[in-house]
Write a structure and sequence with these properties.
- By secondary structure, this protein is α/β, with parallel strands linked by helices.
- It has 3 domains: 11-106 and 116-322 and 341-353, TIM Barrel (Alpha-Beta Barrel), CATH 3.20.20.70; 382-476 and 642-696, Rossmann fold; 489-525 and 560-639, 3-Layer(bba) Sandwich (FAD/NAD(P)-binding domain).
- Helix content is 30%, strand content 17%.
- The chain contains 23 helices and 27 strands.
- The strands form 7 sheets. The chain has an 8-stranded parallel β-barrel with strand order 3-4-5-8-9-10-11-12, surrounded by 7 helices. A 5-stranded parallel sheet has the order 15-14-13-16-27. A 5-stranded parallel sheet has the order 18-25-19-20-21.
- α2 packs across α3 (140-159).
- The longest helix is centred in the first third of the chain and has 20 residues, at 140-159.
- It is globular.
- The protein starts with 10 loop residues before the first strand and ends with a helix.
Amino acid sequence: MTKYSAMLAPLDLGFTTLRNRVLMGSMHTGLEEGNFLSGSMTKLAKYFEERAKGKVGLIVTGGIAPNNAGRVAPFAAKMTKSSDAKAHLEVTRAVHDAGTGTKICMQILHAGRYAYHPLAVSSSAIQAPIGPFKPKELSNADILQTIEDYAQCASLAREAGYDGVEVMGSEGYLINQFIAEHVNHRKDEWGGSYENRIRFPLEIVKRIRQKVGEDFIIIFRLSMLDLVEKGSDWQEVVHLAKELEKAGVTLINTGIGWHEARIPTIATCVPRAGFSWVTKKLKPHVKVPLITTNRINTPEVAEQVLQASHADMISMARPFLADPYFVLKSEEGRSHEINTCIACNQACLDHTFKGITASCLVNPFACHETEIAITPTQQKMNVAVVGAGPAGLAAATTAAARGHRVTLYEQSNQIGGQFNMAKLIPGKEEFHETIRYFTRKIESTGVHLKLGCKVTASEVIDQKFDAVVLATGVVPRVPEFEGIDHPKVISYIDVLRRNAKVGKKVAIIGAGGIGFDVAEYITRNVSESLSVEGFAREWGIDLTNEARGGVEGVEKKMPGLGECEAVYLLQRKTSKHGDGLGKTTGWIHRKVLKDKGVQFIGGVAYDKVDDTGLHITMKMKDGKSEKKILDVDTVIVCAGQVSLRNLEDELTAAGIPTHLVGGADVAAELDAKRAIDQATRLALVLETAKGKVNYAPASSLMQKVQGFMMSR
């Protein structure tokens, strides 16, 4: 019996069989629209082909609109005519020709009031808190036409070679906007009673089944936990699931939370498989196979969920950005080689919401398969990489994979660099996985690793390296004010790396990513593990799912400041704290710290530190200034970084081609996404590289338009 017998078992759907129980969940990557000018779908085809080669059982595409109003943004993908279907043949052929038996479904998604364009429509004319346009209320005739548009879209998907469709009925999109009272305020036959509100999704499924026949997969993405006020209650969810089964769905997929819900559902702080209990609760009520999802990122977790009968199938989306060969590696007993998704959202969701092609922080090849690839070098070089942080690890392992002889120097006794601090932050424990992955990658690619080695320029020159990559990182920037050398003052390095003692009352200077991380670290509740129960308590989720929407009337119980009595998060800027944090995760960090009781203070000038505390001058709203003394025991400096480039001048003077990557190139915030991407791209052209290789995500014309609309 294989180690992952449940995950790798086939799933019989009656008219067809899936090769295993793993579904690559829907993600909008920016590739769905194809080439804006030529209509070519080559990039999307290659992206899915790689995942098919990795032997995933079933793929679901990013959302494709059934009509113009349903598009998520101007020029976004739609399937409304035969020419659209013809273009998609390139995608389905690539998947099927991979020869692994992987099947692919197209997701039909109508944005409803979440659309970023003025044609937005909904069940009622109520603007979304995250939407820029007030939607038009659909008339009865509009509704009937939209139902027909869904059916026609599904028929065209079949014409395009897809094995089925997924109807997006969750996450707060149009169908969900009809189902829940949260948006549906209609008084006609499409609103009011629950029976009326679910007519829309049921008619869509029935019409699709009539149009495509019985031998075509229909997945319905059902919102089982809305996480918004006036969402569905549990009995309503069960009722709709039963009716969907009667209407002809093949599979029911789990949807968790609306996009506007103020509860994280896929961020790193969410426990692994943190919502599979919802799917388990529905399982006794229907016979069609159920798919569970959200924060399942290792084969061990997937297997555990299936063995516990929480679901019949596992949906993983971002893990297939991180590693297209997730299933293949599991099947071949190489799960320790999987590049694990850390749920950071930085290159996937954040890119999508900025109108930039998605990718992956730990795998910059994702969505760029036609642009970059590891190819054997024709000119083997002897390469030194100095620094085994994110950039150095990416550069060393990629260069070695191409055939270069690589020596990786690291002055500490472990690899990982800044990741070793990040993994200590509550909710960022997944960085352990990235370090594990690179540890194995060093072994498999033959990198010569030298730990505890503070290399000098003369040593590097003596070794006669053909090229040197400096990934030496950064050192904390020390601000200038009186008392900066006072015993109360320490740096974030002292706290996270040297385990310095922190007092009960703390001021943190700097409210960027590091400042937020330090605040979360010192206010952590040491007795609370990352558990489903603890997460539910902190965010006010009813684990019985009896409360309407799973949240109505449920009290949140944030643990407070941990062992601290007072924490101040300070910044010079008057803008929002954490303004530069991730677009889709920044709000989580702000909310967590505020709910704990951390005090945010902006517009601050730092005067001095003495025995009485931190002296500051605050800029008030009326333009005046006010001096204040914060009675604190500890002042933690998180005021930025300075690039560490101490070897560059000597190596360059010696005539050795020297390249700067990661923090050694640009300090700014600690940016692992940029560091890994830049270092990888350099390693791919190392033998011909003359200068530094920049991190610059591509943006098509269509995406620039989306970005403009999203910024309004």
